[in-house]
């Protein structure tokens, strides 16, 4: 695993709301602080976007069908 991925994993493994400094993490893993913060923010944004899209797809499905899809149908919705 690359150092940048290790650093992001270290940040994500902390407790929710736990403070950290990109500078300290970057020094620990010997990587550029700006690159780390940009990659981490992109990582977080992508996860939020994926969850939001899944939620919206589920709501649209329920509006059209009147019930929640089965687990197989949810997998199909997430791949789209």
Summarize it.
Helices cover 75% and strands 0% of the residues. With 80 residues, the protein is mainly α.
Write a concise keyword list for the protein shown above:
80 residues, 0% strand, elongated, HTH psq-type domain-containing protein, mainly alpha, 75% helix
How would you characterize this protein structure?
- The protein has 80 residues and is mainly α.
- The chain has one domain.
- It is built from 4 helices and no strands.
- It has helices spanning 3-12, 22-29, 33-65, 71-79.
- It is elongated and about 55 Å long.
- The protein starts with a helix and ends with a helix.
- It comes from Clathrospora elynae.
Number of domains: 1
- Please state the CA-atom Rg, rounded to the nearest Å: 18 Å
Q: How many E strands?
A: 0
| Percent of sequence in beta strands | under 5%
Tally of individual helices: 4
List low-pLDDT spans: 71-80
Order of helices and strands: HHHH
Q: What is the residue-averaged pLDDT?
A: 75
Residue share in helices? over 70%
The biggest sheet amounts to: none
Cα-to-Cα separation, first versus last residue: 29 Å
Query: What is the molecular shape?
Result: elongated
Structural class: mainly alpha
């Amino acid at each position: 695993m690359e150092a940048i991925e290790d650093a992001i994993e270290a940040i994500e493994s902390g407790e929710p709301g736990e403070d950290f400094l990109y500078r300290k993490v970057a020094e620990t893993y010997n990587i550029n602080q700006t690159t780390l913060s940009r990659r981490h923010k992109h990582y977080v944004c992508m996860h939020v976007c994926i969850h939001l899209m899944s939620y919206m797809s589920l709501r649209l499905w329920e509006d059209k069908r009147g019930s929640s899809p089965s687990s197989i149908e949810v997998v199909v919705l997430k791949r789209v």
